[in-house]
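Retro notes, structure queue

What went well: the backlog is down to a handful. What didn't: a couple of records were mislabeled last round, so from now on we paste the full input next to the output in the thread. Example, using ATP-binding cassette domain-containing protein from Cohnella faecalis:
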Amino acid sequence: MKVSETAQGVHLRIEGLNKTFGNQRVLQGVDLDIPAGQFVAVVGRSGCGKSTLLRLIAGLDAPSEGSIRSDDTEVTGIRDNTRMLFQDARLLPWKRVEANVKIGVKAGSDRERVLNVLRQVGLEEKAGEWPGVLSGGQRQRIALARALVSEPGLLLLDEPLGALDALTRIDMQDLIERLWDERKFTTILVTHDVSEAVALADRVILIERGQIKLDIAITLDRPRERDADFAYFEKLILDRILERDEHELRSKKELSYSI
Ligand SMILES: Nc1ncnc2c1ncn2[C@@H]1O[C@H](COP(=O)(O)OP(=O)(O)OP(=O)(O)O)[C@@H](O)[C@H]1O
Ligand SMILES: [Mg+2]
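Corresponding output:
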């Protein structure tokens, strides 16, 4: 596990977390302890509850039962030290790039800070542009700059690379890993891509029907090579996801035989 001694990240402690919408139980008994500075990836089938978990951690929604504590403070709403990134960049089209990033910090913050974070995502020269003229990858980098300009202790990523082409995606993965490595904010990345999870995370969590079904440490050195050890972790996680499918298929067959 790679957690820096100088970690800036928050320590998250989730206990007995349940979330229901009407009579649908979306999260059931989730317990999770995430040390400061850890990079966690959350994988699982569509609809298993990944975004719901992230929204609860962000304080955008409230648990039905259980608790979420961030550095020993109960999460009761959105907080300054937490930032979230979504699949679409959500930039304001009527503000230029620099002003979009500035939204991430308190009024009165110096311009140098905004330009510095733009430099870190490699887009300082786009400071005066409108979001509309940027590519999808560039827009996501601006959204990342806006999220990081306030130096958050917790970064929540809900499939931020899902809409990008393969090469841009790899560039973005490298950028996220580099910035995390420098600053050590606690990170939770939701992704459908098992390979991306193994490439970036210290720990991968698989959610199945609102419950944690797998929680494994990725003990590979960084930067990660896509070698046999990498493939071992990928297969381990994929097999566990597919196991459920086989199981369901079998029980469906048994059901049809018994009819
Ligand atoms: N605000 C809401 N009201 C009612 N049901 C909701 C709400 N938010 C989520 N759900 C339901 O909770 C379940 C889990 O949704 P969630 O968005 O967490 O899934 P997910 O794992 O992120 O899926 P995906 O991979 O497709 O993004 C779904 O059945 C969804 O319809
Ligand atoms: Mg989702």
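Agreed that this is the format going forward. Reviewer comment attached to the example: The chain is about 35% helix and 25% strand.
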